[in-house]
Amino acid sequence: MDTNEHNRRAQILRDLHRAPPTLLLPNAWDAISAAIFEAAGYKAVATTSGGLAWALGFQDGEKTPWPEVVAATARIAAVVSVPVTADIEAGFGDTPDAVARHVVEIAQAGAVGVNLEDGAPHLPSHMRTIEDAAARISATRRTVAAAGLDVVINARTDVYLHGTGDAAARFEETVQRGKAYLAAGADCIYPFGLIDLPVIEKLTKALGAPINIVGRAGTPPLAALEKAGVARVSIASGATMVVMSELQRLAKELRAKGDFAILDHRMTRMEAQQLFAKPKG
After folding, report:
1. Mean predicted confidence (pLDDT) in 257-276
2. pTM across the whole model
């Protein structure tokens, strides 16, 4: 993908954040899942850090060697014609400059967007400081621009996952972090784990910017989120876990019963082949 095409897709992805309608964004973990999502009509595809790591034989949490993350993302981007945004966790780097270099590398692999999170399980607080997280976003925006590229930065904050204090304190910290990340160059704020609809609506008004909510069992319906002003809903590792659950069930039942009727399937081999009939990247 040349630079002009890359930046064109980045702008398409950015424009999709101008709700309504809300961008429903599925998270793929390999080429076939990405191709299936595109064939189903989704306007963009994300990666899931967990699903991608497990598919490659590693645990989630930046345990996958970075070159393998880049290569897997490149394979995903090559089989779809819609924008691809990559969940690269905290950026696989110890410093803002290292994170920024990695974002350039994942962009050169075909991703036109990235997730960058402020969670830091290795720290006592499990959270980076606002200043550190914002510096990573700022360095990313600056370095990507210097490379002649554009990326849509989805700044994930883990206040609702790791934060302390009461509901009011968590909300105020999320607003504070969101505003700092937007000022540093983020396009969208991702309060991971937040599914309380009144709080979501309050947050969209407080930030006045695109908000990404995680879609999972218990999340309000898409129509309600759209009414609350949510710009983007992604499903994280949800689809991966559904597929893994079904495969686990198949494996156990086939082993226990030896009945091959469980291998009946709705997708045909021809349909699978057609997903890869020609390169799209």
Report:
1. 96
2. 0.96
